Amino acid sequence: xxxxxxLPGDGIGPEVTAAAVQVLAAAQxxxxxxxxxxxxxxxxxxxxxxxxxxxxQRILKRADACLKGPMTTLETPGAPVSAAVRIRRMFDLYANxxxxxGNGVDLVIVRENTExxxxxxxxxxxxxxxxxxxxxxxxxxxxxxxxxxLANRRRKKLTYVHKANILRMTDGVFVRAVLSQAxxxxxxxxxxxxxxxxxxxxxxxxxxxxVLVTTNLFGDILSDEAAxxxxxxxxxxxxxxxxxxxxxxxxxxxxxxxxxxGIANPxxxxxxxxxxxxxxxxxxxxxxxxxxxxVALASGKARTRDLGGRxxxxxxxxxxxxxx
Length: 324
Ligand code: NAD
What we know:
Elements: E1 2-7, H1 13-27, E2 33-37, H2 42-48, H3 54-62, E3 65-68, H4 83-90, E4 95-102, E5 105-112, E6 122-125, E7 128-131, H5 137-153, E8 157-162, H6 168-182, E9 189-194, H7 195-204, E10 211-214, H8 216-229, E11 237-241, E12 246-250, H9 267-279, H10 283-299, H11 313-323
Parallel strand pairs: 1-2, 1-3, 3-12, 5-10, 8-9, 8-10
Antiparallel strand pairs: 4-5, 4-11, 6-7, 11-12
Helix pairs in contact: 1-9, 1-11, 5-6, 7-8, 9-10, 10-11
Bound molecules: nicotinamide-adenine-dinucleotide (NAD).
Nicotinamide-adenine-dinucleotide binds at residues 12, 16, 70-73, 84, 233-234, 249, 252-255, 257, 264-265, 268, 306.
C-alpha cells in the first residue's frame, strides 16, 4: 500500500484531480493506494490564512508521495511563496522532470529546481530592482547526475542548455558541473546549446532531443514550449523528485477562466499520477495508464476542447479509466 497526499488545488485543479483519482482507482492491481486529501494553495489562504496549513504539512510528511493539482499564486510583492515552492523546499525536491510525448516528439526536460532566479532573492535598488541568480556546483552536479542517469536509460543523448556566453560566472559553474559528471557516463553523447538556440530548435527540429538539462528559469520556459510542441500544455505532466520523496503535478496552472466549466483537459494530471506510480515502483501500472491515455485520445473519447474534441473533463477521465 502506498499513502498519497492529494492536494486538489485551485481553479480547474479539483476537476482534473477528480478525473485522475478515477483513473488511479482503475489502475490499482497488485497494490492499493490510500489517498489523503488536504488543502493547499490560494483557497487555503482564504480558509486557513496560509497556502500550506500545518495539517497539510503533517499529511505530506506521513505520505509516500504527493499528487498536486495546479494552484493560483499571488503575484503581489511580499505575497507568500507558492505552495509548490514550499513543498519543493520542505523535501529538497531538486529535480523537476518533464516528459513531453506526442506529435512524434519524445523528450524529457530536467530542470534544476532549487536555485537560479527562482531563489526569489530580489531587492529594490535606486531606479529599479535586482534579482539574484544563484548557481552552485553542488546543485548543478546533482541535477546533471540525475539527467545523465535518465539519458543512459533512454536514447543516450544529453543536451545541456545554458547562456554561458553572457552569464559567464553562473552558467560557467553549471556547464563545468555537467561536463564533470558526464565523464561517468561515457555512453551518453553530451552536447551544449545556448538557451535561445534551444528555444528555436525545439520548434524547428524537436526530434533531435532526448534529455535536456538546464537551470531553473530556462527549464521553466522551455518545458512549456516543449509541452506545446508535443500537443499542448493540457497533456503534460511534471515530477518533482528528491532523494526520498516526490511531488507530481500537471505542467499547467489553475486556468481560472475555465474553473467549474468542466472543459479542462485532465490528461496532464492523469499522466502526473502515472509518473507518481512509476516513482513508487509501480512501473507496470504507470505504463498501463500511459497506454490507456493514448488509446482514449486516439478514439476521440478523451479529447477535450483544447484538442479539438467535445469530451468534458469528467468524460475524458472516465474514458481513460474504462480503457484501463
Ligand atoms: P495556466 O496554465 O493556468 O493557463 C494558461 C492557458 O493554458 C489557459 O488559459 C488555457 O488556455 C490553457 N490551459 C491550461 N491548462 C489547461 C487544461 N488543463 N486544459 C485546457 N487548457 C488549459 O497559466 P497562467 O494563466 O499563466 O496561470 C494561472 C494561475 O496558475 C496563476 O496563478 C499561476 O501562478 C498559476 N500556475 C500554477 C502552476 C502550478 O500550480 N504548478 C503552474 C503554472 C501556473
